[in-house]
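Saturday, quiet lab. Running sequence design on the structure tokens for the scaffold JK sent over.
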């Protein structure tokens, strides 16, 4: 597994729950295997945040550790406006923002949203995430390319990474120049080895062991490169594949160890985990319905700019709120199901809907 991933608390027992609490108190964000990756991250060094690949990729259906992205539909519906909808926001303000979004999605102004209109919107919002990542990458690349020559060597990156971890940058650079032992702890060495593998994967042919700005973007955000997306898929399959055939069966996809549970709440979480992944495997990822997910199928599923996926997602999103079963989405439906689309629940959602619209 890639070592920058967050650890899992796979055994939900009283003893292991205590361990998870202790890990949390120590600053390690443990996550049970049946939970999607949390967006909440512990405070980190700013330089480290700039140059390390992020744990979470907005607009990508699966996390880098193989967990489903539980906020995917909100990310592709709200785009860069996700943070504007939070639990503390004033409901009436959120309702007006949601009405404004509805009018933009409703491209032909017929006061209903079709699957094609939602597909178009999803592609636009996904592109917003892409543009945001590209802009952030410019700052990240400057952080590792202080001489501004437009290329970064692995050693240059390694020096900046270790400096972000608290090592003296000049001392590290001198030791590397003289081929001296850096005397790194085991965990830091493992992180570097995993990053090095990823670094050379991002080095486009002809390989020169240098990354330019676009290649560095692929290093941080594999969804921006077909080759790196394939690398990400291979990593996920390797982590989940139990028999080594480089394919995933349903049992492999849902059988991350969950251990013995000792209370009903934990059992419910485990059951939800299995149901969610089973549905996604059978209804979406396994496109030819043969009970096997190949790397090609998983790659298509995870490609954020796949228009066919966007259309399927649009249909699924509409189906969630389509109470009148007309295969379109009306304003009162999207307001009623606001929590699904935005993560924020509106009070009195139907109040003065038509007047405000």
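Result came back. Writing it out in full:
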């Amino acid at each position: 597994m890639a070592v920058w991933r967050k650890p899992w608390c796979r055994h939900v027992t009283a003893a292991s729950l205590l361990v998870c609490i202790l890990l949390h108190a120590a600053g390690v964000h443990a996550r049970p295997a049946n939970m999607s990756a949390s967006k909440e991250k512990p405070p980190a060094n700013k330089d480290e945040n700039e140059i390390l690949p992020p744990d979470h990729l907005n607009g990508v259906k699966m996390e880098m550790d193989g967990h489903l992205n539980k906020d995917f539909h909100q990310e592709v519906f709200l785009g860069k406006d996700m943070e504007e909808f939070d639990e503390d926001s004033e409901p009436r303000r959120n309702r007006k923002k949601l009405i404004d979004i509805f009018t933009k999605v409703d491209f032909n102004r017929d006061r209903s949203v079709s699957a094609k209109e939602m597909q178009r919107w999803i592609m636009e919002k996904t592109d917003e995430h892409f543009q945001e990542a590209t802009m952030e990458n410019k700052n990240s690349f400057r952080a590792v390319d202080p001489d501004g020559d437009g290329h970064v060597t692995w050693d240059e990156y390694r020096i900046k990474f270790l400096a972000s971890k608290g090592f003296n940058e000049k001392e590290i650079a001198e030791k590397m120049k003289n081929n001296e032992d850096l005397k790194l702890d085991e965990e830091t060495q493992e992180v570097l080895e995993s990053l090095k593998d990823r670094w050379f994967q991002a080095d486009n042919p002809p390989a020169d062991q240098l990354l330019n700005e676009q290649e560095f973007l692929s290093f941080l955000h594999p969804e921006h490169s077909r080759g790196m997306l394939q690398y990400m898929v291979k990593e996920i399959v390797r982590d989940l594949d139990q028999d080594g055939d480089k394919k995933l069966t349903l049992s492999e996809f849902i059988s991350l160890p969950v251990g013995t549970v000792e209370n009903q709440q934990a059992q419910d979480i485990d059951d939800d985990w299995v149901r969610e992944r089973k549905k996604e495997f059978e209804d979406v990822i396994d496109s030819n319905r043969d009970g096997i997910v190949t790397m090609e199928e998983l790659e298509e599923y995870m490609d954020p700019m796949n228009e066919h996926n966007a259309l399927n997602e649009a249909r699924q999103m509409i189906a969630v709120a389509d109470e009148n079963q007309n295969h379109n989405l009306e304003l009162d439906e999207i307001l009623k199901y606001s929590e699904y689309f935005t993560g924020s629940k509106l009070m009195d959602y139907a109040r003065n809907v038509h007047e405000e619209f």
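Notes for JK: The longest strand covers residues 152-153. The two ends are 49 Å apart (CA to CA). Ask whether to fix the surface positions before the next round.
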